[in-house]
Design a protein that fits this description.
The complex is a heterotrimer. Chain B contains 22 helices and 23 strands. Chain B folds into three domains: 127 residues; 253 residues, 3-Layer(aba) Sandwich (Rossmann fold); 76 residues. About 4% of the residues of chain C have low confidence. Helix content of chain C is 31%, strand content 25%. Classes of the chains: A alpha+beta, B alpha/beta, C alpha+beta. Chains in contact: A-C, B-C.
């Protein structure tokens, strides 16, 4: 049975009404947040101290510079190179004939200026060897790469592809490298995966890639950033909550356990960072740079500590994450800010290099089916018995 | 001159039949305007070579829509493209002879076509050689009469064949019948094929004639003085015209028989009754005396006579009145010592052609009376000779051709059975006498007589009935009809019949220039004298 | 022979850069489609092109040229509102030249093997990835000595009006003949024969021959 929309329409209307009601509330919170920002920015050191000494369950952004900064963009150089990487994958499918997975990375490299050029390619890789499809500890423990872990592996491969692009003909043009999504591998912090997994993927994988990129410079300028559109994070709002908390040492469990929506901090809480900055920033402006205080970053990233800022595009706000060595290098920071704006202008609201990389990477349902068909065909030719499950067979053919 | 191979290709045969002719699609490079009805073409079939005449030219298109919305031919490019492809010219050709490729046909010469050429056979303009093969070259039997359209080759008439049957020369007035007749007479004379007796109503053939523009042309006597004798009915007229006449013809009353007068019934206004009366009177007084007697009758004797013979008075008066009309013919005399018939026969026997001028007596009555009377007698003599010849008593005599003009007036269905000419025509050459009829209203001539004519030479005719009558019984009739009606008004004629292997449109040869006379054998004074001497010697040999 | 050996070999007598215009991406018995190496540098409509045959060379007439997005589902959007020229649009968005391709479709009209020319469809179609070359003027002249190839074109069922293709093909070919007007007349006559039952069509084609 397909979804009966007529039964839902009334409920959707209720949703809209509810949203409208919340709108007024939201606007008030934004105003309070702006005020809080201004007053918190007055004493940055005090704020830093308060952050250090606080104990909150929620993630708070680390302040670095005047937090109410509204930084207009410097003019983007006419000549620069944007390299973006994006990926997609075909997960392991129990119902299929062979145990393997596919990661397809798309790369887009666009050169602007006196010698415009473009390179678009995709690099698919099939993982099937015993040592490829699992992560093995020194003492023989095995964790299969699939599902969420496969997603993480993919993100790492996206970064590794950027490293491969470091081998390039000599040029003096500045380079901005872009990734989609977050540079913070959140799920590896959840204590779900054993340490050897974190080591292999993050410490010896992802972070090593970041190092290589870091060491490319100083000439030409090379910055790396990741782009998150429609960010749902609340780190800066949380910082403001912390700032407005009347207690010097913030300890929610201790002081406000059980209370909710009557706390002082609730006056700003409940909205997203992006809502604040949409209100605050003019198109083209960026916010101050903040530090990420997530545990995985503080524990592992070190020289590649992830910082972030928000940038206002024409209509929306995007979150840009950068490693420390970009945040602390004024030229790289400026490059990142202006280049991203330029890319979004060319890409009609989204960095064009990233969207092209995405197009190269995308694997749709049809591709997925063709892939498994091909696997089955080749195995069949080789005389290997291919038994796929009845469930996948029944999914393949639409029947009544 | 182009060889046969180089002869320009016109197109190819695309359809058709033997009876109605074949259709030829013209090649793109040939302009329809260069084609003419009456021209000869040669068709190279797979097994035979055909010889035919163009009988029609038409415009065709591959798509009838072209006629409805013609393409823009002011654009030279489009005009060039569609010419010969979308639009093309078509010829109707009547294949008449085959000139085969095998030895037999080369020996026998061209044969009448019994089949048609194969599809897409090449059609070319006939070459000189083709025409020569068909018509033969000029020799002792063949007389050059003219050239085919747009060609220089000589078309020759087989004169021996010609005189085997009676023939006709037809055409509207002013189209050149007289010229043609002169040529034919010269031809027969030159080739010694026959001896001619010409009843020259308008005095055109004997000494000299006139062209339409008024130029004089030589007559037969000027060209061949020793072979031609001029007889005249009107001495004064001949003298005035300074014509050298050999004999003055007088006809006595005793020579006129009832049949002669019956012929003149209409002219003399005689009733049926009076005509019958003549026979009565002839029985009464004898064939040779009746006329003289009746003319000399006075009132008294006349009354006696008619009551005795039971003749109605009004009939008699009608008869007398009619007969009196004869008196105006001053060549009719009560008595004559001369026997004109015998004089004529003498000349004819010697091979000398006789031309009888009528002078002022150029009306129909005199013509028919004299021509019929003399011919009747001459014919009778020839018959006698012929019968004796059949019995082995004498050698065969030279054929005689009697030339008469305005033939439709006495070869019409009503009269033809009464005249000697009808009889001569019907009996063909049984007694070595044939006719050459000259006429501009062939539809007036008895169809039976027309069908007896062996060869017809026709200039332009435009009356539908005349065309039909001339072509009666000829194969390819409707095709030839269109050719006939498109002839030029002068110097063109269509010849068909026994004396030519196939119908041919000719431009008649020149007659009237010094050159033309010389070609015909005319000798100047000095030569003439020499020749005359020799002739006289021969004569008395 | 491996790739290294092949590369080091002396180049073939045919000059590889000789007017190579594209590569076959689709082929069937009566036609083939090729992608140009350079955007917007397709051969003109009606142009005579050739590609590898088996054996010899397959000749064909260009009947459709199309520039479009390479990716199905991605359409081209206008980008030049603030720019001054098409070239600036491409400079500002360098990825465009990778995402668009100019393709052309070719109607097969015969094959040439050395000195002999055959004006019928070759037994096997062109091979995918065969290179496509624009025919040189001598080749065009030689091939169009005979107009037999027109019969394959006349009855082709294609979306582009085939008469336009025929006319432009003949116009181009006429320029390679010493007397181009005579060639056009000869071609016109051949068309008149073939289109004898459709005078209106003939008229419109002839008008386009000048």
């Amino acid at each position: 049975m397909s979804l009966d929309l007529s039964k839902i329409i009334g409920q959707i209307v209720n949703l809209a009404a509810n949203l409208k009601q919340k709108e007024a509330q939201r606007r008030s919170k934004i105003r309070h947040a702006v005020d809080a920002l201004a007053s918190a920015a007055a004493d940055i050191n005090a704020l830093k101290q308060k952050v250090e000494s606080s104990k909150t369950t929620w993630l708070v952004a680390g302040p670095k510079e005047s937090i109410d900064l509204r930084q207009p963009a410097k003019e983007c150089s006419t000549d620069y190179i944007a390299v973006a990487s994006d990926g997609s994958h075909i997960d392991v499918d129990r119902h299929q004939s062979a145990h393997c997975f596919l990661i397809n990375i798309g790369i887009a490299e666009l050169q602007y200026g006196f010698n415009p050029g473009a390179e678009l390619l995709s690099v698919p890789k099939l993982y099937f060897r015993d040592d490829e499809v699992v992560i093995m500890s020194a003492d023989g423990r095995i964790v299969p790469i699939e599902g969420q872990l496969l997603g993480i592996k993919r993100s790492i491969e996206e970064c590794r592809m950027l490293v491969d692009r470091l081998e390039r003909p000599e040029s003096s043009l500045p380079i901005i490298m872009l990734l989609d999504g977050s540079l913070i591998l959140w799920s590896l912090a959840e204590q779900i995966y054993p340490d050897f997994v974190v080591n292999e993927l993050l410490v010896n994988g992802f972070l090593k890639h970041l190092d290589k990129i870091r060491r490319f410079g100083p000439r030409p300028l090379l910055a790396l950033a990741s782009y998150i559109s429609f960010p749902r994070s609340t780190e800066v709002i949380n910082l403001l909550r912390l700032a407005t908390c009347p207690h010097q040492q913030v300890d929610c469990d201790q002081y406000c356990s059980g209370k909710f929506s009557t706390r002082e901090c609730d006056r700003v809480g409940g909205i997203l960072d992006r809502e604040l900055f949409t209100y605050l920033l003019a198109p083209g402006e960026r916010s101050a740079v903040f530090t990420s205080r997530s545990s995985v970053v503080t524990r592992h990233y070190e020289a590649n500590e992830i910082n972030f800022f928000y940038v206002r595009l024409d209509r929306e706000v995007a979150r840009i994450e950068i490693p420390l060595w970009v945040a602390e290098n004024e030229k790289l920071l400026e490059l990142t800010h202006s280049a991203i704006l330029d890319q979004c202008r060319r890409g009609l609201g989204y960095p064009v290099a990233l969207s092209e990389a995405h197009e190269q990477a995308v694997v749709n349902v049809g591709d997925r089916q063709q892939f498994w068909n091909l696997v089955g065909q080749v195995l069949g030719e080789d005389g290997i018995s291919m038994s796929s499950s009845a469930k996948s067979e029944s999914k393949r053919a639409r029947w009544i | 001159m182009a060889t046969e191979e180089e002869q320009k290709r016109l197109g190819a045969v695309v359809s058709g039949s033997l009876t109605q002719g074949v259709e030829v699609r013209l090649d793109a490079s040939i302009s329809v305007e260069d084609m003419a009805v009456g021209r000869y073409v040669a068709i190279e079939g797979t097994k035979h070579r055909f010889f035919g005449m163009i009988t029609d030219v038409s415009l065709e298109t591959v798509d009838p829509n072209v006629a409805v919305t013609p393409p823009d031919v002011s654009d030279p490019f489009i005009a060039q493209v569609i010419n010969g492809t979308t639009t093309y010219g078509k010829l109707e050709v009547l294949p008449m002879l085959t000139i085969g490729g095998d030895a037999a046909s080369i020996l026998e010469g061209p044969q009448p076509a019994k089949t048609v050429p194969a599809h897409f056979s090449t059609v070319k303009l006939a070459s000189q050689r083709d025409v020569e093969v068909v018509f033969g070259a000029e020799d002792e039997k063949r007389f050059y009469v003219g050239t085919p359209l747009d060609m220089e080759t000589k078309v020759c008439l087989d004169v021996a064949e010609f005189v085997k049957r009676s023939n006709g020369v037809f055409g509207k007035s002013g189209t050149g019948k007289t010229f043609l007749t002169r040529l034919l007479l010269v031809g027969m004379l030159q080739k010694n094929a026959a001896v001619s007796l010409v009843f020259d109503m308008h005095s055109e053939y004997g000494w000299e004639g006139k062209t339409e523009k008024g130029y004089k042309v030589k007559g037969l006597k000027q060209l061949f003085p020793s072979k031609v004798a001029i007889f005249t009915l009107d001495e004064e007229s001949s003298k005035r015209r300074r014509v050298n006449t050999d004999v003055v013809v007088r006809i006595g009353y005793n020579e006129i028989e009832p049949e002669d007068v019956e012929l003149l019934r209409q002219t003399l206004n005689l009733t049926e009754a009076s005509t019958q009366t003549i026979y009565q009177l002839a029985r009464e007084f004898g064939d040779s005396k009746w006329l003289e007697t009746v003319l000399n009758l006075n009132e008294e004797d006349g009354k006696q006579l008619i009551s005795r013979l039971n003749i109605h008075d009004s009939t008699y008066r009608n008869l007398r009145r009619g007969l009196e009309n004869l008196r105006r013919f001053s060549f009719l005399v009560p008595h004559t010592r001369e026997n004109s018939v015998q004089r004529i026969l003498d000349y004819l026997d010697r091979g000398i052609n006789v031309i009888l001028e009528f002078g002022r007596f150029d009306d129909f009555a005199a013509y028919i009376l004299v021509a019929n009377l003399l011919s009747r007698r001459i014919y009778a003599r020839y018959r006698e000779n012929a019968e004796r010849e059949m019995g082995g008593e004498v050698a065969p005599s030279r054929p005689l051709v009697i030339t008469i003009e305005e033939a439709h007036r006495f070869l019409n269905p009503e009269l033809s059975s009464h005249t000697i000419f009808g009889r001569i025509a019907r009996e063909m050459r049984k007694y070595n006498v044939t006719l050459l009829v000259i006429d501009q209203r062939p539809s007036g001539i008895d169809a039976e007589v027309m069908s007896q004519l062996g060869t017809k030479i026709t200039c332009l005719l435009d009356d539908e009935r005349d065309l039909d009558s001339v072509l009666t019984g000829t194969s390819g009739k409707s095709e030839l009809k269109s050719v006939l009606s498109k002839l030029e008004t002068k110097q063109q004629a269509l010849i068909f019949g026994h004396a030519v292997p196939m119908p041919v449109v000719i431009k008649t040869r020149e007659y009237g220039t010094a050159e033309s006379y010389r070609e015909l054998g005319f000798l100047d004074a000095a030569e003439l004298k020499k020749k005359t001497q020799k002739d006289i010697e021969d004569l008395w040999a | 022979m491996d790739i290294e050996q092949a590369k080091s070999q002396k180049p073939k007598t045919k000059n590889h850069s000789e007017r190579r215009i594209g590569e076959v991406i689709k082929a069937s018995s009566a036609e083939f489609a090729a992608q140009c190496y350079k955007l917007d540098e397709a051969p003109p409509l009606g142009c005579l092109v050739k590609t590898e045959g088996k054996p010899g060379e397959i000749y064909g007439v260009v009947y459709d040229v199309e520039t479009q997005s390479l990716e199905p589902g991605r359409r081209v959007v206008a980008r030049g509102e603030k720019l001054d020229s098409k070239d600036e649009v491409f400079a500002a968005n360098p990825q465009l030249s990778r995402l668009l391709s100019t393709d052309f479709k070719v109607m097969v009209v015969g094959e040439v093997e050395g000195k002999s020319r055959h004006y019928y469809l070759p037994p096997t179609p062109a091979a995918i990835h065969s290179f496509v070359y624009v025919c040189q003027p001598e080749e065009v002249r030689g091939f169009t000595e005979s107009l037999d190839f027109l019969s394959l074109l006349i009855n082709a069922k294609i979306l582009v009006p085939v008469d336009e293709v025929i006319a432009s093909c003949l116009r181009n070919a006429s320029l390679t003949h010493p007397d181009s007007n005579a060639f056009l007349v000869k071609a016109g006559k051949e068309l008149a024969r073939m289109l004898s039952n459709d005078i209106n069509r003939l008229n419109s084609v002839l008008k386009r021959l000048r």
